[in-house]
Amino acid sequence: MSMSLEDSLKKYFGFNSFRPFQKDIVSSLMAGHDTVGILPTGAGKSLCYQLPAIISKGVCVVISPLIALMQDQVMALQKQGINATFVNSSQDAFEVDYIMYNVTEFPLLYIAPERFGNDRFFQQLQKIPVSYFIIDEAHCISQWGHSFRPNYRQLRLLKDYFPDVPIGAFTATATPDVKQDIIDQLNLNQPTVVTSSFDRPNLLIKINEKQNGIKQIEECIKRYPNESGIIYAATRKEVDTICEKLGKSNYKVDKYHAGLSDDYRQKSQTKFINDDVDILVATVAFGMGINKPDVRFVIHLNMPKNMEQYYQEIGRAGRDGLPSECVLLYSIRDLILQKRMLNDIESKTIQSAMRRKTEQMFALCDSVACRRVELLSYFGETYTPSNCSQCDNCISPSKMIDGTIISQKILSAVYRLHQRFGINYVIDVLHGSKNKMLLRNRHNQLSTYGILKELPSVAIRHYIFALINQGYLTVSEGDYPLLKLTHKSRDILFDKQNIQFKDQVFKEPKSKKSAVKMAFTMDYSHDLLTKLKALRKDIANEAGVPPYIIFHDKPLIEMAAKCPKTDDEFLDINGVGPQKLTLYGVPFLRCIKEHQSMTVS
Ligand code: ADP
Ligand code: MG
Question: What is the rounded CA–CA span in Å between residue 304 and residue 343?
């Protein structure tokens, strides 16, 4: 008698139930259909092919673009008692031949796409019983995708050589053109296409104007003591500065950017993955191939270039499904700088397409609407709840205020200054600053001097940004951008047109409260969790693997809540299968028992 899929899931992976869509995909592949799985990061795509691979006869060949990811997956599978292996450029010909010779012992064989560059390899493959071909990160095959890999194009030959082997293709890129490209390029045969929502409900999304970067960072990170997080900055210099400042405040922090040696970067990445440092400050060069499931926050100190990039980067938070936070701090400078960089692009069509994407990104930042509604609608999805309760705009809605008078004052100041000064100077004039240059220029004698002195300068800045964004002001090109009036400025100055502003900047977001609300609902002992994490770290160090390969945070939290006493109770924990019971049951049960005897007496 064969086991049910649920029984196999528990036996091999230790999970108590399938996540949404997993079973559909597993069943489709096992029924021999080509299958495309389009699910967001963290949804559990790997399991969708790993389970069929283990249950079915033959070797499942998985094509995966990144060596690091490949090794990580193989390591995790081996710890679950599943015989997986890989072939990639880190091995010599002898090793590769050895693996290929013994390949039938492995239900899963991971391969880098480069291998498919020669016919010899296809012929070699034809000698082995292939159960499925799996293309992970399948968007790499599409030129529309954000990381096109020419090597992936060779995979179109798979159907010619192996017409009878089902192909599974997986990606977290949702756009329709990428999906169609995957189906066409791989020549899939009436594939089952499984697509889920791209919402990541466990992510708290916050977007704020950048004021005092470091304070705003600390506001977030201090709520996640001893937890992992990534801080993205735009420049190497900023990475260095932030890393140093946080280090001085005793955070366990390291950095990663292209100006550091390979060796340094390798080490800081490993420290991050192994929980030897908590926070990694990095440029966007960091993150590809990082599979760390327990990243609790991702902070952006600059606006990403487009929504695709933003979605991908925040996607690195909370892959384990536990509550995690994404904070984006932006300023209009980001928009200006990014548009300026686009000027170098030769093709006018591409340039304007990219400009549009950057503007859409800025529009998200500047919006008062639910972040989820906006973000998901960009990817063509309608998010129906009217209040997601997990974004800044839903938690503390911004009022719109009438900004007509304020705007008139700002625009008059720009006019009186003959449009020859930058934002900071205009703010100084409006605020009534005693700045030396201003006094020397006698701008304290202007009628607009101090005309907005009741407002803090951050507020004035916010309104100027809003005017730029709505097209009532513009910023000149060049090294010293000057504020300029536009043809629309007249509407406000002379025709008294009304203008609405978002009134959000000056109240602190009530994030304390939301953090509590976000807290994991299970009631557990924090002391015990700390002990379990320490035990996990010891075991991981000894085995030379990252702690998350031993157990994710989620099962540890469940252990700290349920305090299992017996093997059976331990096995009930979601994420504990027979193999992990055998390997780790004794030390973890002992740790729980000792903790209880200490707290009871
Ligand atoms: P994706 O490739 O879709 O980004 P992964 O395959 O890396 O996601 O899975 C994300 C995490 O979810 C993994 O750490 C995995 O252990 C966990 N996971 C997958 N399926 C289940 C399940 N049915 N129950 C609990 N956790 C699961
Ligand atoms: Mg994946």
Answer: 17
Instruction: Give CATH 1.10.10.10 domain extents, the chain.
Output: 400-502
pLDDT of residue 243: 97
Number of neighbouring beta carbons within 10 Å of residue 65: 22
| pLDDT at position 124 | 85
Distance (angstroms) between ligand 2 centre and the Cα of 7 equals: 23
Q: What is the pLDDT of residue 5?
A: 96
**Structural domain 203-395, CATH architecture:** 3-Layer(aba) Sandwich (3.40)
CATH 3.40.50.300 occupies which residues in the chain? Answer: 5-195, 203-395
Q: Which ligand is nearest to the CA of 292?
A: 1
Q: Read off the pTM.
A: 0.84
Give the chain's residues under pLDDT 70: 1, 144-146, 504-521, 600-601
Q: Which atom of ligand 1 is nearest to the CA of 552?
A: 14
Question: Which of 46, 288, 574 is the pocket-test mutation for ligand 1 (most atoms within 8 Å of CB)?
Answer: 46
Q: Is the CB of 46 under 6 A from ligand 1?
A: yes
For residue 139, give the ligand nearest its CA: 2
Gap from CA of 560 to ligand 2 centroid (Å): 28
Cα 232 to its chain centre, rounded Å, is 11
304 Cβ below 6 A of ligand 1: no
Give the span between the Cα atoms of 488 and 491, in whole angstroms.
Answer: 6
Asked if residue 141 has its Cβ within 6 Å of ligand 1, the reply is no
With a 6 Å cutoff on the Cβ, whether 18 touches ligand 1 is yes
User: Strand 167-171's sheet: what is its strand order?
Assistant: 84-87, 108-111, 59-63, 130-135, 167-171, 35-38, 192-195
User: Is there an atom of ligand 1 within 6 Å of 43 CB?
Assistant: yes
- Tell me, in angstroms, the distance from the centre of ligand 1 to residue 320's CA: 7
pLDDT tens by residue, 58-75: 999 999 988 888 988 999
Is any atom of ligand 1 closer than 6 Å to the C-beta of 15? Answer: yes
140-186 pLDDT, tens digit per residue, is: 898 766 677 778 888 999 999 999 999 999 998 877 888 999 999 99
- Ranges in the chain annotated CATH 1.10.150.80: 526-600
Tokens for 350?
């591409």
Going from the Cα of 311 to the center of ligand 1, the distance in angstroms, rounded, reads: 18
Q: 321 CA to middle of ligand 1, Å? A: 9
Three-class SS of 91-160:
CCHHHHHHHHHCHHHCCEEEECHHHHHCHHHHHHHHCCCEEEEEECCHHHHCCCCCCCCHHHHHHHHHHH
DSSP 443: G
CATH (residue range 5-195) = 3.40.50.300
Compute, in angstroms, the gap from residue 36 CA to the centroid of ligand 2.
13
- 526-600: CATH homologous superfamily? HRDC domain (1.10.150.80)
What letter represents residue 444's amino acid?
N
Does 62 contact ligand 1 (Cβ within 6 A)? no
- The tens digit of pLDDT for each residue in 433-487 reads 998 999 999 999 999 999 999 888 888 888 888 888 788 998 887 777 899 999 9
pLDDT tens sequence across 394-424: 998 877 788 899 999 999 999 999 999 999 9
- In short, whether 45's Cβ falls inside 6 Å of ligand 1 is yes
- Predicted local confidence at residue 262, as pLDDT: 93
User: What pLDDT sits at residue 494?
Assistant: 85
To the question of domain 400-502 being in CATH 1.10.10.10, the answer is yes
**357 within ligand 1 shell (Cβ under 6 A):** no
End-to-end CA gap in the chain: 49
